[in-house]
Structures are given as C-alpha cells and as structure tokens.
Amino acid sequence: MSNLGQNVYMEIQPSNVVSTGKVSFRSGNPVIQFIIGENDLHLFGSSVRFCGDIQFFRDSAKTIQLEGDTNLMNIDPKLGIYNIIDTLTLSSQVHKSTIERITNYNRFMATYMPTISSETEALSHLNATSLVSPNKTTQRIQVVNNTNGSGGSPLYLGSSFCINLPCGLLGGRNPIPLSRNNGIGGLMCEIQLSPDSQVLFSGTESNTNITDAFYELSNLKLICEAQVVAPNTSVGNTFEYNSIHSYFNSVNSTNAILNFQLGLSNVLGAFINIIPSKYINNLKYDGLGTYPLLQDDDTPAEIDSIIFTRGGIRMPIDYILSTPNKEDSNQNQPDPNVFRFFMNSIKDYNFNNHTQMSPLTYSEVVGPVASDINNMFGVGVPIDSISGQGVNFQNVNFGVQMETKLTTDNPNALYLFVRNRSTLVFTPNGVQVVN
After folding, report:
1. Degrees (nearest 5) of the Cα angle 149, 153, 157?
2. Beta-strand runs (E) in 181-263
3. Pick from 258, 334, 279: which is nearest to 303 by CA?
4. For residues 109, 114, 118 and 121, what is the CA-based torsion angle, rounded to 10 degrees?
5. Reduced to 3 DSSP states, what percent helix, strand and coil does the chain have, rounded to the nearest 5?
6. Per-residue pLDDT at 287 exceeds 70
7. Which fold has domain 237-425?
8. Model pTM greater than 0.70?
9. Can you tell me the distance from the alpha carbon of 252 to that of 260, in angstroms, rounded to the nearest whole number?
10. Using 50, 70 and 90 to split pLDDT, how confident is the model at 328?
C-alpha cells in the first residue's frame, strides 16, 4: 500500500543537548540544534513548533522568586518565551548552506508580535502557548514566579510553551521539499539563546538581588507536520520566500543620518526599533524594550521629521515626514503618518485587525521604567506594497534621516529589519540563496 499523499507528524529531540536535558546560557550551552533529516517529504513550515519548559531562578541555588521579594526580576511581557531567542538560523542539513539567519531575533519579535496580535490574544492563546502578557505585573506573576505546582519539590518545571518560529522560510505558503535531489537536503534549525542579563531585568536602580539570576530550559523538542511525496530524480528547482535581514546602527545627535548597505535586490519593507545603548545587557533595564529615542535622564527625545532615501534620493516617500513635535514638544499623540507607515512596513494597515498598537503604547511619552504598559515605538516604511516584486538595493544604500530633540550624550541603538523577496535554488550539488 502506497503512503503517497499521507501526512506524517514528527517529534524531534535536540541533537546537542547534554544528558541532563537542562539547557541554559549560564551553563555554557547557548545553542539548541534540531535536525529534520533529508527524506521524500514536503515540510509544512507553518506547522513547525518549538516546545519545552522554562523556569526562572534568582540565584545559583535555584531559588524561586516570590512576589514579596525585593528587586523583583521580570522579562519583557510582550515577548514571552521569544525573549530567549537571540538568533534563529535555518540551513541545509546535507549541504550545510545557510538559508536564512535572523540575528537579534528577539528584537525583531518585540515589534512583530504586538503589531499583529491583539490584547485579547495576548491574554488568551498567546499567553498559553508563548507566555505573552499585556503587562509586566501579570507576566511576572504567571511566568517568572511560576513553579507549576511543584511545591517543595526540588524539580521545578516552571511554564510550558509551544511556539511557532516566524521567519521567511517557515512562513511561506508552499511546502518545503526535504529531499536531496529535488529539495534542500534536510533542514537544520539552530536557536541561539540570549544572555540572562539581556532577558531578565529588575527595573530598579539597585539590582544586587538578581545579579546571579538565570533561566533554564528543559524537555525541549521540535514538532512538525510533513507530507509523503514520490521520489524525484530531477536535478533541481527553485523556491521563493520573504526573508528577514537584520542590521544595526546607533545615533547620538539631533541630526541622525543612517545609511545601510543592504545588498538585497527585492526589498519589500523595512522598520527600525530603538533602545538606549546603556539598556542592553543591563539588569536594571528591559534590554528588549522598544522605546522612543531617549535622553540620558530617560525622558523622550522626540522625532521632528523623517526622510527615507534610496541612494540619497527620497524614496519611497518623496516628501519629508514632519511630526507635530517640531512645533510643539508637548504633543501626547503619535503622528498618524509616521504611525501608519510604520504599521504598513510590517503588515498592510487596512488588513491588520489584530494589534496592540495604540496612541498609548506607540506614544513617545510613555515612561520606560515606571510604567506597566508595554512600549511599542518604531519607525518604518513599506518599500513595495503594490507589485510584491520588491525594489533593488543591491548596489545603493537605504538611508534614514531623522531630525530629533536628542540634545544629551546618550547613544541610542537602532535595529533595522528588512523584508526581502528571496529565491532559493537547490540542486543535488548544493543550495544557493539569491537575495
């Protein structure tokens, strides 16, 4: 009896986890590797799920946090379990060629997740599967302090999660061929963990009580669904998907001029999220927050105007985006033009019915530390939202010019994420990505 056309369900264990099954950045094994072997299968990318348990400890003695403790440790609530993923790499198992690599993956998700999901979703299914929450206090009580009913037992399972891994390759509509002759030759998925000091924060001036804090993962696995197909002896094929590319820069002046050499030929959109450099890997601050530009006293440095350029020429917007802050620095509402372009750079504004973006969360006046509200600020622009073919930035720079009120010496880190239409070419001899 033929199995052609039947779906198979796979549960894959990590190939590089130590015998204890416990994984943490602190213990010196920050990379988790899963291998979906080459086979006559078509993998459904949207079915891939990363599953396991996570527990947070205040010190090396594995002390569980209580709500009555001082200097309570937190994680960014809008990210949940995505806090821990620093880099996501997808490559061919046979040919070892990298197909997609997203650095600063948790910062990408810090903007992507709240943009496409509502507060109701953050309180319901995303809370159950991804440990996401709409505010810091709820997140801390439900996840960071959670012992999963273990009581006085030394075995703390903490909180379980089962998440998809949003990226270009796994987010495509077409199934991914895993065969060697007419596919990518198996798929290797590597998850690089983020440092404890980047994931955890206290939000207070003194954080001496959590300087030894860390997180630990256990019971890790990857589950997915694939379809059995007939063996194919053809010599190759192509596969298109929207890849995500990450870039970094910083600003520390009132006239911020940024130029990025993308090296991409089919750019569809780009967005930037921001954080003061002193917040990164600092237990005092949320290192994965998406704030407006901030002065050295943590007050907002409003953006007065924005220009996007291609090779020094305004594009795709041929005018200056001037905000109300230019005339009145006491504005409490975000500029609707800047807000709409930012939303469109991630998902078409007209079809985005699930979002946590609002005048409250996107405003440049939300307090970064004292407030329990998630900051969700960013700047972005859709490059090609009509044809879907993208714009060529192979040999010309993508530029952003911002006139700001940043008048103090306080470098702000800017993370740029670009969506590009890529083509994957695969043959029995190798895999090549054409960007």
Report:
1. 55
2. 187-193, 214-228, 237-251, 255-260
3. 334
4. 40
5. 15, 35, 50
6. yes
7. Adenovirus Type 2 Hexon; domain 4 (2.70.9)
8. yes
9. 17
10. low
